[in-house]
# Entry
Amino acid sequence: MRRALPWLAGLACVSAASAGGVYEPVSIDKDEWRLIEESKDLEGWFSAQSLLYMEPKALELVRRVGHEIRPQPTDDYIEYEFFVLRDPSPNAFALPNGHVYIHTGMLARLDDEDQLAALLAHEINHVAGHHGILEHRATRKKTIAGMVIGSLGPWGGMISLGLQTSIYGYSRELEQEADDRAIEVLLASRYDPHALPDVLDILGRDYEGLSPRTPTVWSTHPEVRARAETSRALVAGEPRRERHGDGFEAAVMDMRAMTIEDYVQDDFPHTAVALAESLVARYPSDLAVLTLLGDAWQGMGAQGPLDLESLSDSDKRHNLRDRARKTRAQRLAEALETEEGRAAYAANLQLAEETYQRVIAADATFAPAYRGLGEVYEQQARTRDAAEAYLNYIKQAPAAPDRPIVMSRLRLLTTQLKVGQ
Amino acid sequence: MDIKLRAVVILAAALGCSTAAFAERGFTNEFLSGATRPKSIALLPAEATITRQQVIETTGLIDESVVFGAQFNADVAKVLADKGYEVQIVDSDRINADRALQEYVVDAKRAYDEMIARYRPKKLPDRIYNAGDSARLLASHLGVDAIAFSKLSITITPAGKAIVSALIGGTTSGANSMIGIVDGDTADLEVVQIAIAIVAPGEKTPEEIAAYVATLAAGNTKRLPGADPSQRIEVAVSDDEVLDEAETLIRE
# Structure
């Protein structure tokens, strides 16, 4: 801790110099210009990996809100621009050149435009406060001292050390400064400053009982709940403002559905169920949303409900190691060897079936529910019912993109039915 | 038999077995037999990581990674075509221009990454690795029998950094790549081929990097058997026949 003090004191001095609401320019050296160039190049790299989410409604929303609250750049190397990355992890980050990225998984968890503004205001302040450059300087010092070069996360190999802090998290002091300044930005705008603690509350939720979670700006900071309390105290005296929700919902609805499907695919079923249940609570008669909930229950496999309060850090680390070593099928097979696992599996499939049946009862032509039902019946070894459900799916959606997949299942089931006769 | 001669014979037999085992490593038995060997393969953009390690920090050569990733795919495609496969290079321009394709590619790549992170070579024949419906959807959308996912990594280390690494430890120069082939019908992982190349310390010109990329592409494809459509198990029954049959069986 003592070692960190000198550079933390340095950061505090920079922050003090910029106190008063407006950040001062920071001149950068040749080496730091490279950081700016890399920041610009990342856009091309994300594009080459097809990770830029270009759906117009969502992108326009993020850009409109971002442009509305961005300050005048203090330096010629800063140009604010806003992007959405196709990634279900709840993350957002800002690069030193002013490029701000928000993941689809983050956008999908927000409730309204004010929360989006709060999130972007936080990120914008990392840029305006030159936090990337400051941390780069501090990291360089630490690196010279330790000669340690590490890499983190899915893009760890690609992202240079200089940019890693921009993506994976700043020091606690700089995060707090960005929070504090975000409130100032929100107060000066039409948005509700109470949205910031809301965002931090949303991000503090751990649905899966895994620790540490995938490193992100937010999850690597265990004090995210403390930050929520701090920001809540800061805005406590401010009147609440009317939230901006209507346009937001329309812009992100498809993304919410996509993100829940991503969580089902990526085996984060507790997260998928929680997000789907919250959507069902808001849109109880939306059949697509109900079907998503069925998919989420099905994705639970043999996992029972989690009592997060009773999970120790050691349990969470064990869960993470288990997850990293075994495939989903291997974990399911192991769970089904236990009484508890078999009971959870049966209960989850039952919930999924009931949900799909609710959809079909409301609209017997709603194809996706038949597919889900077929999958449930297959897992329950109800061959005839599964074949019938898939047959109904093909009848209702003859040109569905996943027709070849469903047909191959139907082929197998037909063979099983013939053999069984 | 003379004991020395017997030892030599046993050693030769063991070597023969291990060579055969090595030759089969990284393929499922069904791929080797031809039953699941594809006629057509789609190559997704290679995830290339070219980094320059310096004494103090690491720099990602972002633009170069994109260029050399494309070169890797082109090199792999040429070898596959020479071996008789129908090859589709699915580049990022094509993906970014088609929203549905982008969806499928991103989902399939995430599923593949999750799967390959748990990959153990000895377990490949057990068929425990499956990339799920996203890979099947992608194959169906592209109209191919299999999808190839590839990653390559080249680390360039100046001599000074290499000396520091030798003294106190740390990353050194090197190059490696991996190609995984996933069956489009089942989403099972059928092939994993890994290649490495030795990279001498020191700065590298683009031509030298291109040569490493070519070496890796050749290493990833040299043991891949040629296409053999005659052995591939195909579905003979039409969709309509299956639907009629299913309808009849359900009514019964």
Summary: The beta strands of chain B are 40-43, 47-53, 58-60, 86-89, 146-156, 174-183, 189-197.
